[in-house]
């Protein structure tokens, strides 16, 4: 089990909706009056949540995602960040705020050095830039609000403002992407030495404009084999530049692994605030057996505000997990990481015989060279990274 907890805050506003996005988000220009009410609701939801924060303390990471948090006025976002940090620190007396990794997601089109400086002063110490690509045609097909020049300038501005921990998000398999275009993007990104790069393969989510365009034949995306070639192109380029692939889609310079993401992959405890946010924490239900809760808030932004501001919980659903289910989740998530997961350690931590159930499954996949095993420790084999879900599905 992970040591320490996390906070995730969802800001569902953006400059414009990207063609591939199915996250809970809406262009800020369409609902600007709602933004102030939403921020007030976040603060209201946070206040009684301090009790839960104490149970999962010390808080090791805070992450404001979206949407595009930086679509909000910088002063309002900085105020929210400061309040979150105060709550996190107060949850564990004496906890050093410098030891909290505090990330804010940003779109290159919605930041400047003045706003970034405000975030730094509020305690944010890690910026995650949604660059996705530097190719003009790919950016247009993805519906991104920035161009290549803005993306590179955003990286430079973040460094100039004082950010010493910077992530860049890239998309593998964008419409029209070729090995040559991806190599050009990677060359320019690596030259600026972000501390961390996330390179996720494009997912065509049902109902998004891009999915409909691909289904109708108006837009073409790389097929599975081409996407695999692009993925391994990125892996080779990043690893040769000194980045370590510590999870299927995440690469970091030494010591710059994302603490917040590691918390998820280690089945850590976290509080989610905002519309569509999820939480994971120990249950307070009585009885001799330990149990855990996974809960999620309503995804309707207006309903979230109405519920919270009228004194009701925004929770839309929850499930309670016993030790067996929690241990299986820990194995499934940990398999994606370079370090992998030790089934004996997980079984001891949760008091269940997880090895009896899962070792035969993992050994079967190891014979197919999709899983690497050393004793009771297992991980997805590097060459099987893009088909890992086939293995993970049998671990649930």
Structural features, described:
Helix content is 41%, strand content 21%. The chain has 396 residues and is an alpha/beta fold. It folds into 2 domains: 5-263, Aldolase class I (TIM Barrel); 340-396, no CATH class. The strands form 4 sheets. A 9-stranded mixed sheet has the order 9-10-8-7-6-5-4-1-11, sandwiched between helices. A hairpin with a 2-residue loop joins β16 (371-374) and β17. α1 packs across α10 (301-309), α2 (74-90) packs parallel to α3 (113-121) and α6 (179-191) packs parallel to α8 (224-240). It is globular and about 55 Å long. The model has no long low-confidence stretch (mean pLDDT 95).
Number of domains: 2
CATH fold-level label of the largest domain? TIM Barrel
- Residue stretches low in confidence (pLDDT < 50, at least 5 long) are none
CATH architecture of the largest domain: Alpha-Beta Barrel
Report the CATH superfamily of the largest domain: Aldolase class I
């Amino acid at each position: 089990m992970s040591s320490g907890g996390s906070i995730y805050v969802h800001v569902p506003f953006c400059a414009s909706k990207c063609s591939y996005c199915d996250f809970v988000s809406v262009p800020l220009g369409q609902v600007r009056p709602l933004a102030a009410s939403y921020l007030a609701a976040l603060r209201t939801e946070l206040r009684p949540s301090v009790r839960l924060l104490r149970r999962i303390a010390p808080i090791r990471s805070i992450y404001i995602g979206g949407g595009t948090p930086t679509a909000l006025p910088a002063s309002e976002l900085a105020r929210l960040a400061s309040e979150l940090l105060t709550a996190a620190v107060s949850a564990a007396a004496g906890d050093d705020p410098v030891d909290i990794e505090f990330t804010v997601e940003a779109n290159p089109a919605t930041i400047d050095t003045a706003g970034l400086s405000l975030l730094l002063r509020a305690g944010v110490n890690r910026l995650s830039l949604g660059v996705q690509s530097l190719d003009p045609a790919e950016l247009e097909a993805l519906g991104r609000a920035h161009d290549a020049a803005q993306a590179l300038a955003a990286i430079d501005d973040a460094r100039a403002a004082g950010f010493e921990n910077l992530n860049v998000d890239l998309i593998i398999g964008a419409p029209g992407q070729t090995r040559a275009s991806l190599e050009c993007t990677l060359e320019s990104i690596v030259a600026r030495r972000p501390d961390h790069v996330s390179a996720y393969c494009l997912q065509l989510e049902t109902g998004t404009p891009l999915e409909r365009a691909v289904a109708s034949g108006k837009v073409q995306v790389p097929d599975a084999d081409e996407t695999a070639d692009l993925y391994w192109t990125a892996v080779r380029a990043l690893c040769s530049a000194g980045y370590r692939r510590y999870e299927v889609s995440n690469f970091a310079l030494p010591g710059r692994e994302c603490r917040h993401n590691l918390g998820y992959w280690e089945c850590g405890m976290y509080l989610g605030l905002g519309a569509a946010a999820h939480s994971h924490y120990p249950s307070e239900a009585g009885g001799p057996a330990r149990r855990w809760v996974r809960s999620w808030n309503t995804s309707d932004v207006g309903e979230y505000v109405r519920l919270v501001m009228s004194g009701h919980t925004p929770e839309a659903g929850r499930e309670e997990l016993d030790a067996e289910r929690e241990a299986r989740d820990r194995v499934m998530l940990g398999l994606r990481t370079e370090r992998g997961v030790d089934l004996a350690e997980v079984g001891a931590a949760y008091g269940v015989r997880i090895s009896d159930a899962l070792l035969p499954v993992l050994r079967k996949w190891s014979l197919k060279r999709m899983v690497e095993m050393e004793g009771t420790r297992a991980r997805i084999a590097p060459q099987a990274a893009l088909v890992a879900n086939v293995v993970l599905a049998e671990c649930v």
